[in-house]
Write a structure and sequence with these properties.
The chain is α/β, with parallel strands linked by helices and 382 residues long. The chain has a single domain (4-378), classed as Rossmann fold. It is built from 16 helices and nine strands. It has helices spanning 12-23, 42-54, 58-66, 113-120, 155-169, 181-193, 219-235, 237-244, 246-253, 257-271, 284-297, 300-303, 305-308, 338-344, 361-364, 366-378; strands at 4-6, 70-75, 78-85, 99-102, 135-138, 175-179, 198-203, 323-326, 348-352. Strands 1-2-3-5-4-6-7-8-9 form a nine-stranded mixed beta sheet, with helices on both faces. β2 (70-75) and β3 form a beta hairpin. α1 (12-23) packs antiparallel against α2, α5 (155-169) packs across α6 (181-193) and α10 (257-271) packs across α11 (284-297). The model has no long low-confidence stretch (mean pLDDT 96). Keywords: Aromatic hydrocarbons catabolism, Hydrolase. Residues 4-112 form the Epoxide hydrolase N-terminal domain. Belongs to the peptidase S33 family. This is Epoxide hydrolase family protein. GO terms for molecular function: hydrolase activity.
Length: 382
């Protein structure tokens, strides 16, 4: 199956329209007496929109993105966008497993670029040049330049699409897979569905089992599940509306760039390990590059499909391939006990709780995470 080179080229008319909308933004006032007490702080949003309008250089960001080899291929009748970056490897060094890196929501392939740099050219970052991997980074179906699938957007369906990319399109006999959030769940499905082709998986959000019925919950498991349910009472509103009224929400966000930025920034601030200041974890230009990609591709609505179609997911089989976890530091992961992951995975070979790096760890702690990926996947022979 052939694939075609792809380059990001946003029409100037689209950018002109974006600037006009940003210039005419109507802002709200704060609901409470403290910044960020009721969602995105209006003062922060006002400053971000002003910078987006007059300071952010999309063409420079576009050029940085286009420095990475990009392609599109048709799978299941839909276009899939992906990066394919070859390793910078010394002559005679043995080939490593090719790696598939999958982002989640509300993210994009941009999240994985710091990892791409460190995995394909480790010598540039002070690591062993022989530990270089070929890396594939897709835009998940429905995100960015990848079209939404025809049928229900289930985790298994996404896994089948990415497996076809790695095997039928790119010709890999075996590969390793990494992901976080939705990309992490899909990574788990890849390991469960294709143990003969997936050499191992690495995730920052350990998986739940298909069922907890195999044995009684431990005290640690029960405490975590209770805490997670309590946290969801304060954080779960976004998923509830995206899973029940996605088109209503998308109508607003597809029409207002400031509204789109607010919806995404709310999660970046809450879920990163930022010590109260988002800039400590994700710089403003990177954040706006991701938000702008959602805007110019018009894919915020299709990125919600995985939530609307959640009921179509079936129980995932056990994951029997070698598994590694570098557990994210974010509220929903606090106190996550290893025994929950052991209910889902039969061969956990690495478990790390570094105490730093949140939901978007490839952006937040790329050196730490790249080192863990090199160590784990380097131990798995091609």
């Amino acid at each position: 199956m052939s694939y075609s080179p792809f380059s990001i080229e946003v029409p100037e008319a689209v950018l002109d329209d974006l600037r006009a909308r940003l210039a005419g933004t109507r802002f709200t006032t704060r609901s409470g007496d403290r910044p960020w007490c009721a969602g995105v702080d209006p003062d922060y949003l006002r400053e971000l929109v002003a910078y987006w309008h007059t300071g952010f250089d999309w063409r420079a960001a576009e050029a940085r993105l286009n420095a990475y080899p990009q392609h599109r291929v048709t799978i299941g009748g839909r276009k899939l966008h992906f990066l394919l970056v070859r390793a910078v490897r010394p002559a005679g060094a043995p080939a490593r497993l090719p790696l598939l890196l999958s982002h989640g929501w509300p993210s994009s392939f941009v999240e994985m670029l710091p990892l791409v740099d460190r995995l394909t050219d480790p010598a540039r970052f002070g690591a062993d040049p022989a530990d270089a991997f070929d890396v594939v980074v897709p835009s998940l179906p429905g995100f960015g330049f990848s079209e939404v699938p025809a049928g229900p957007v289930t985790r298994a369906a996404l896994a089948r699409t990415l497996h076809e990319l790695m095997t039928d399109v790119l010709g890999h006999q075996r590969y390793g897979a990494f992901g976080g959030d939705v990309g992490g769940v899909v990574t788990g499905w890849l390991g469960a569905l294709y143990p003969d082709r997936v050499a191992g998986i690495h995730m920052i959000h350990p998986p739940f089992p298909a069922s907890f019925d195999a044995r009684p919950l431990s005290a640690a498991e029960q405490a975590y599940l209770d805490a997670d349910a309590a946290y969801d009472e304060t954080d779960g509103g976004y998923s509830a509306i995206m899973g029940t009224r996605p088109d209503t929400l998308a109508a607003a966000l597809a029409d207002s760039p400031a509204g789109l930025a607010a919806w995404l920034v709310d999660k970046y601030r809450d879920w990163t390990d930022n010590r109260g200041d988002l800039a400590n974890s994700v710089d403003r230009d990177t954040l706006l590059t991701i938000v702008t990609l959602y805007w110019v591709t018009g894919t915020i609505g299709s990125s919600f499909r995985q939530y609307l179609d959640f009921e179509h997911n079936t129980p995932r089989p056990d994951i029997t391939v070698p598994a590694a976890f570098t557990v994210s530091t974010e509220p929903s992961m606090a106190g996550f006990p290893r025994e929950i992951a052991e209910r889902a995975c039969t061969d956990i070979r690495h478990w790390s709780e570094p105490g730093r790096g949140g939901h978007f760890m490839p952006l937040e702690e790329p050196d730490l995470l790249a080192g863990e990926l090199r160590q784990f996947f380097g131990s798995l022979r091609p």
